[in-house]
Amino acid sequence: MRIDKFLWSTRYFKTRNIATNACKKGHVKINGITAKPGREVYPMDEIVARKNQIDYKLTVLDIPPSRVGAKLVNIYRKDTTPKEAFEHNELLQYSKDYYRKKGIGRPTKKDRRDIDDFLDTPSNENEEENQTPDNSSKESHD
């Protein structure tokens, strides 16, 4: 079976076209060698597929006749991806969400709230306390 078809049938990629493009870009290796989409896969081959910045490592146990259900995937492959790869991806997501270069642009609303909390003097309360009510109106001046 072709490598792109195998990765699609074992649900590593949503479509076969995405699996083919991953092979063309060099994101798939069989036994340490970059694989083209038409490369044949045999039982006991070691496959490394890079997807979403994670290197999935799997061993081919058997060749499926066609695309299989999610519950039956483990019959045809053994996933040996280390847990460190997933942990690294989680840390990367947290750093992307939080990180913003200093001095670039105005502070965001969240940054302003953090600054106000840090200074412990919110700007709205101070302005309201310092204002004195003005009892004069335009009609009283006439």
What does this structure look like?
Helices cover 42% and strands 15% of the residues. The chain has seven helices and five strands. The chain has helices at 3-9, 16-24, 73-76, 83-98, 109-119, 123-130, 138-141; strands at 28-30, 33-34, 46-51, 54-60, 77-79. It has a five-stranded antiparallel sheet. α1 packs across α2 (16-24). The mean pLDDT is 82.
Provide a brief overview of the structure.
The chain has seven helices and five strands. The protein has 142 residues and is an alpha+beta fold. The model has no long low-confidence stretch (mean pLDDT 82).
Mean pLDDT: 82
Helix/strand class: alpha+beta
Strands of the largest sheet, in order across it? 2-1-3-4-5
Query: What is the general shape?
Result: elongated
Q: What is the helix fraction of residues, given as a range?
A: 40-55%
- Main beta-sheet annotation: 5 strands, antiparallel
H/E series: HHEEEEHEHHHH
How many β-strands, per DSSP? Answer: 5
Model regions low in confidence, pLDDT < 50 over at least 5 residues: none
**What is the CA-based Rg, rounded?**
29 Å
Task: Give the CA-CA distance, first to last residue.
Answer: 95 Å
Strand content: 5-15%
Number of helices: 7
Notable features of this structure?
142 residues, alpha+beta, 7 helices
Topology:
Blueprint (H helix, E strand, L loop, with lengths): L2 H7 L6 H9 L3 E3 L2 E2 L11 E6 L2 E7 L12 H4 E3 L3 H16 L10 H11 L3 H8 L7 H4 L1
Antiparallel strand pairs: 1-2, 1-3, 3-4, 4-5
Helix pairs in contact: 1-2
